[in-house]
Design goal:
The structure holds two protein chains of two kinds.
Chain A: H1 2-20, H2 38-41, E1 58-61, H3 69-85, E2 92-95, H4 102-113, E3 118-121, H5 127-136, E4 141-145, H6 150-153, E5 158-161, H7 165-185, E6 193-198, H8 203-217, E7 224-229, H9 236-248, E8 253-257, H10 262-272, E9 278-282, E10 294-300, H11 302-314, E11 322-323, E12 332-334, H12 345-358, E13 380-382, E14 385-386, E15 393-395, E16 399-401, E17 403-404, E18 407-408, E19 426-428
Helix pairs in contact in A: 3-11, 4-5, 7-8, 7-12, 9-10
Chain B: E1 12-16, H1 22-48, H2 52-64, H3 67-92, H4 100-118, H5 124-153, H6 157-179, H7 209-228, H8 230-240, H9 242-247, H10 252-279, H11 290-300, H12 305-329, H13 333-355, E2 356-360, H14 363-368
Antiparallel strand pairs in B: 1-2
Helix pairs in contact in B: 1-13, 2-3, 2-12, 3-7, 3-8, 3-10, 3-11, 3-12, 4-5, 4-6, 4-10, 4-11, 5-6, 5-10, 7-8, 8-10, 11-12, 12-13
Chain lengths: 432, 369
């Protein structure tokens, strides 16, 4: 059916192409870099002179509102950062429920019109629309959280920030590994199998679940994982359904890269039905949804990234195009351990954090995983932004070697995750 | 005095009006809007203790506060109005086209697909023409399908068009995963973000000039079509009574098919305007419920396209204002929805007083009874 639809669609397009016939020259490449509007041309935001916290105007564009755990984490992050820096609350303007379309550009430009010096957006899909506004307001800084185009775009007022989420994934994996070991030791389960509810087969998700499994394998080396995609970032029923599929296939611990409480609730229901199954969440503490089954949740501490960015801006220094940091800077954590966590979990967690902090532990240590049975010695990543449909290069970037000193360097060459190796032991059940 | 033995006239009697002067009906509607504002004000004050006047001022500021905001409001009005214009002939014919949402999406998909695949291969004016024609055709096909079934097998068009919406939404999410960038992100992002190939150019120095031009031409065109053309008359007759239409020699199936092609095509064009003229991307939210909102617009305006312009303006004003009151007062979308609901309720309710009059029991009337 899908093929038929694609065929019909492509026929329409072919028809369009034939019907038109004539071909004209493609417009020159870089029209996006427009000069700033006259109102803003003379206005200096003081990038070199710095700014006082009372002066700065901050704009924030959010995909949803405080009812969404993801956006709430960002709101709290901004609020904490501003309090710590002494930026008055009334200097921060929020635009909530902004979809990833022209509305985002409208709001970004509107905030710039209103005199905002720095504008943040919290969702990946906002990025290109933010950049449209950035081209129009060269004196305003636009920070697209979780974005990936700032460095290669050549636009000096576009920035990306992203925490080392893979660290908290790894540590939450350690918690899961301790539980799995306990279950195996006391004979409650015989197969070391876990499951992962992923939103999309996207690098950020792949990086996260790989780190999670590596965390588990640091305790239970023979553990394997199955991944079920839901194709939505937030879907209570889809996530619950995916968790049920994974549990039916024998997974005893279910983690997730999806924003709802669907999976933890499903795991809790199975736990109450007598199955030895447990859940590891993301973003928010899942103990309300799964009081018995929830072990912990991997969490980002956005305030650290917001604070660093705003601090740099206030000091009048150049904000790096990409900024990423992790536990060492306080940007990563896991939520309080659930009551059914295995004995000794806290010690194992502390050890993992300590290793990550002092650099003795690398999450993507190449001696700890294989791809196709082989140890990975080289893995290159092209930083260019390519239109995957047409193959056109939107922004040219370097190709970099990611393996260095025996580990894959994640979020180093750019803030947004790019680990997309499929390591042995992970099966994607419904990849496209 | 166990039970009243004599008939007394009720306190208020309701009688159908034969007709009403234009100024009177306008006055009733104005009163309805005023009442709605008072009711909403009471609602706002009782829940949040905010001064309603400040809230209304913020809403006005959100919609018209700066020239950018004004043009955004205008652009959004044009998209909503375009869909309503598309729906008008269908509803006037009493063909319940609940499928505008899908027709808009189909037009949007075709536009986005062409922007991606044909972008940068031809000049933007030519590409716009091609996309415009293709979206008209795609919308027409989406409107034709239920019309054919209705004309041939008398299927229920309400359910049919409604279901086609879901087909269109699924088709859109399929296309999004086909065109997503980067792979797995489920986001198409701005199409041709650097070259702006296939984006509406500025017209008369206004970013949404082309949106305004296209939709205003349609507004006038549809007004004339419905009011003065033979086909418009056929639509009106068919809407009043199928049998009368048959008796007058109008072939219902032919009119249904012709009108739905027109209706779907204009909705498809709205998809083109939304994608090429505003969003420059495609997602399942491209139509964003406007296909349903436009039904209200068309009905309240009784298919008069100029009145539709006013109703669209009112609804978009409320929507744009909602973003601002969320920013200024932390009132989220739901508060704005309640206000919109109260206003629509009062306006629709006022139709009752335009069609009927209340006769209180006066001394004279009581004697008469």
């Amino acid at each position: 059916m899908k093929k038929l639809l694609a065929l019909l669609l492509s026929l329409t397009m072919v028809f369009g192409m034939v019907a038109c016939g004539s071909k004209t020259d493609a417009p020159s490449g870089d029209t996006a870099q427009e000069p700033g509007t006259t109102e803003n041309a003379g206005d200096s935001t003081g990038e070199t002179t710095g700014m006082s916290p009372e002066e700065i105007q901050v704009g924030v564009i959010l995909l949803h509102d405080e009812n969404s755990a993801y956006d709430m984490a960002h709101i709290e992050g901004i609020k904490t950062a501003c309090t710590e820096l002494g930026i008055p609350e009334e200097n921060v303007t929020y635009k909530m429920n902004i979809p990833e379309d022209a509305t985002c550009y409208d709001m970004a430009a509107d905030l710039a019109d209103a005199g905002c010096d720095i504008i943040f957006s919290d969702s990946y899909g906002h990025q290109t629309h933010m950049m449209q506004a950035a081209a129009e307001f060269p004196d305003t800084i636009f920070v697209a959280c979780t974005g990936d185009q700032a460095a290669v775009s050549g636009m000096s007022n576009v920035k990306n920030i992203f925490p080392y989420t893979y660290e908290s994934r790894y540590v939450s994996g350690v918690v899961a590994g301790m539980k799995l070991k306990e279950l195996l030791d006391n004979g409650e389960v015989t197969e070391a199998k876990v499951g992962y509810v992923g939103a999309f087969p996207y690098a950020e998700v792949v990086s996260g679940y790989t780190a999670f499994l590596l965390g588990i394998q640091s305790i239970v080396p023979e553990a394997t994982m199955e991944v079920q995609y839901t194709n939505t970032w937030f879907g209570l029923t889809e996530e619950a359904e995916a968790a049920n599929v994974l549990m039916d296939r024998g997974a005893v611990i279910i983690s997730q890269h999806a924003d709802s409480t669907g999976a933890p609730s499903a795991v809790q229901a199975a736990w109450e039905a007598g199955k030895p199954v447990y859940s590891v969440g993301y973003n928010i503490d899942m103990q309300a949804a799964a009081p018995d089954a929830a072990l912990t949740s991997a969490q980002n501490v956005w305030s650290v990234l917001y604070k660093h960015t705003l601090e740099t801006f206030l000091a009048g220094e150049e904000i790096p195009a990409d900024f990423a940091c992790g536990y060492a800077d306080g940007a990563q954590s896991i939520s309080a351990l659930g009551k059914n966590c295995a004995e000794g979990t806290q010690e194992a967690v502390d050890a993992a954090w300590a290793g990550l902090k002092d650099g003795s532990l690398h999450v993507f240590d190449t001696s700890k995983f294989t791809v196709g049975g082989e140890t990975v010695t080289t893995s290159t990543f092209d930083l260019s932004i390519v239109d995957f449909v047409t193959g056109n290069v939107i922004y040219e970037g370097d190709t970099v070697e990611c393996i260095k000193d025996g580990h894959f360097e994640e979020s180093v060459h750019r803030a947004a995750p790019y680990f997309s190796l499929r390591i042995d032991g992970i099966t994607e059940l419904n990849a496209q | 005095m166990s039970s009243p033995a004599i008939h007394t006239a009720p306190l208020v009697r309701i009688a159908k009006r034969d007709g009403i002067a234009l100024w009177k009906s306008c006055l009733i509607r104005l009163a309805a809007v005023f009442l709605a504002l008072v009711l909403s004000g009471l609602f706002i004050y009782s829940l949040t203790k905010l001064n309603p006047v400040d809230v209304y001022k913020a809403m006005y500021d959100g919609a018209f506060g700066t020239s950018r905001r004004t043009w955004i409001t205008v652009r959004e009005v044009m998209t909503l109005l375009c869909i309503a214009i598309g729906l008008a002939p269908a509803f006037k014919m009493r063909f319940w086209n609940i499928g505008a949402e899908g027709q808009v999406l189909i037009g949007g998909i075709v536009t986005a697909g062409m922007m991606i695949h044909l972008g940068n291969t031809m000049s933007t004016p030519l590409l716009l023409l091609v996309m415009g024609v293709a979206s008209l055709a795609a919308g027409a096909v989406w409107g034709l399908i239920p019309a054919l079934f209705k004309a041939r097998w008398n299927t229920n068009e309400t359910l049919f068009t409604l279901m086609l919406n879901y087909v269109a939404i699924q088709l859109t999410s399929y296309c999004v995963s086909l065109w997503e960038n980067p792979y797995g992100s489920n986001v198409v992002g701005q199409i041709n973000q650097q070259t702006r190939s296939g984006w509406f150019p500025e017209l008369f120095g206004i970013s949404c000039g082309l949106n305004v031009l296209l939709v205003l031409v349609l507004t006038v065109g549809m007004y004339i079509y419905l009011r003065y053309s033979k086909q418009g008359y056929e639509i009106a007759v068919l809407g009043e009574s199928v049998n009368t239409a048959r008796y007058a020699g109008i072939k219902p199936s032919k009119v249904i098919i012709r009108t739905m092609i027109l209706s779907g095509a204009i909705c498809g064009l709205a998809g083109f305007i939304a994608v090429a003229g505003a969003d420059h991307t495609i997602s399942v939210d491209t139509a964003g419920g406007r296909g349903f909102t436009a039904i209200i617009v068309a009905w309240i305006a009784k298919f008069n396209t100029f009145v539709m312009l006013l109703i669209s303006l009112l609804l978009v004003f409320l929507q744009q204002g909602a973003i601002e009151i969320a920013t200024q007062f932390g009132l989220n979308d739901f508060a704005a929805n309640v206000i919109t609901g109260i206003i629509l309720f009062c306006i629709i309710g006022s139709e009752f007083f335009i069609n009927y009059r209340l006769i209180p029991r006066s001394g004279k009337e009581a004697k008469g009874a």
